[in-house]
Amino acid sequence: MYNKSDIELKVAEFLLQIKAIKLQPNNPFTWASGWKSPIYCDNRVTLSHPSIRTYIRQKLTQLIQEEFGSVDLIAGVATAGIPQGVLVAQELGLPFAYVRAKAKEHGTGSLIEGEIVEGQRVVVVEDLISTGKSSLQAVNALKDAGLSVAGLVSIFTYGFDIAEENFKEAKCRFATLSNYNTLIEYAAENSFIAQSDVDVLNQWRRNPSEWGQNLDKNPA
């Protein structure tokens, strides 16, 4: 049985433990978008930890089976979704392809790499959902290629309202192993952050584009 709450907490624990997620409410990062952020997430770090990598592979596989049933193909989102997607495809014994951020500028000019067949039912694997924009670009590319996109899975989501709206508008279901609310709860209860930091972290999630605009830059 897929126990979602236990998995959400365990993944949050792992990501904090190996510093795949860093929380710095008093010394925020600056994302490439220009947003100030008290959190920085790099789930590629999980690949360097075999036991955690295995756990995530197994739970992403279970999540796909629980949420989407039988599929024909796993597709990763370049670049961080590629290794996670390969691991899941191997676990399921399925073909794998990946979607570039933009079409190759030489050779075949491919946007999708790997062998695909029109009509295949595919689940997209991503490492992180922020606004959902890059994930949905990949989803749309697969749809345009004639594939049936069952949905998308990822390791973690910030839980932004804009992401929920974007996925709803695209009519694309998604599911994640863990999320921001669970992470902050676990971090506070296990002394990764002070209890006094929780309000600051929650304020950021509610309005990330405007949070901390007057703070000094600390490029991530």
From TrEMBL:
<feature type="binding site">
    <location>
        <position position="104"/>
    </location>
    <ligand>
        <name>5-phospho-alpha-D-ribose 1-diphosphate</name>
    </ligand>
</feature>
<comment type="similarity">
    <text>Belongs to the purine/pyrimidine phosphoribosyltransferase family. PyrE subfamily.</text>
</comment>
<keyword id="KW-0328">Glycosyltransferase</keyword>
<dbReference type="GO" id="GO:0044205">
    <property type="term" value="P:'de novo' UMP biosynthetic process"/>
</dbReference>
<dbReference type="InterPro" id="IPR029057">
    <property type="entry name" value="PRTase-like"/>
</dbReference>
<dbReference type="GO" id="GO:0004588">
    <property type="term" value="F:orotate phosphoribosyltransferase activity"/>
</dbReference>
<dbReference type="InterPro" id="IPR023031">
    <property type="entry name" value="OPRT"/>
</dbReference>
<feature type="binding site">
    <location>
        <position position="106"/>
    </location>
    <ligand>
        <name>5-phospho-alpha-D-ribose 1-diphosphate</name>
    </ligand>
</feature>
<dbReference type="InterPro" id="IPR000836">
    <property type="entry name" value="PRTase_dom"/>
</dbReference>
<dbReference type="InterPro" id="IPR004467">
    <property type="entry name" value="Or_phspho_trans_dom"/>
</dbReference>
<keyword id="KW-0665">Pyrimidine biosynthesis</keyword>
<keyword id="KW-0808">Transferase</keyword>
<dbReference type="GO" id="GO:0019856">
    <property type="term" value="P:pyrimidine nucleobase biosynthetic process"/>
</dbReference>
<feature type="binding site" description="in other chain">
    <location>
        <begin position="126"/>
        <end position="134"/>
    </location>
    <ligand>
        <name>5-phospho-alpha-D-ribose 1-diphosphate</name>
    </ligand>
</feature>
<keyword id="KW-0460">Magnesium</keyword>
<feature type="binding site">
    <location>
        <position position="100"/>
    </location>
    <ligand>
        <name>5-phospho-alpha-D-ribose 1-diphosphate</name>
    </ligand>
</feature>
<feature type="binding site">
    <location>
        <position position="130"/>
    </location>
    <ligand>
        <name>orotate</name>
    </ligand>
</feature>
<comment type="subunit">
    <text>Homodimer.</text>
</comment>
<protein>
    <recommendedName>
        <fullName>Orotate phosphoribosyltransferase</fullName>
        <ecNumber>2.4.2.10</ecNumber>
    </recommendedName>
</protein>
<dbReference type="Pfam" id="PF00156">
    <property type="entry name" value="Pribosyltran"/>
</dbReference>
<feature type="domain" description="Phosphoribosyltransferase">
    <location>
        <begin position="49"/>
        <end position="158"/>
    </location>
</feature>
<comment type="function">
    <text>Catalyzes the transfer of a ribosyl phosphate group from 5-phosphoribose 1-diphosphate to orotate, leading to the formation of orotidine monophosphate (OMP).</text>
</comment>
<comment type="pathway">
    <text>Pyrimidine metabolism; UMP biosynthesis via de novo pathway; UMP from orotate: step 1/2.</text>
</comment>
<dbReference type="GO" id="GO:0000287">
    <property type="term" value="F:magnesium ion binding"/>
</dbReference>
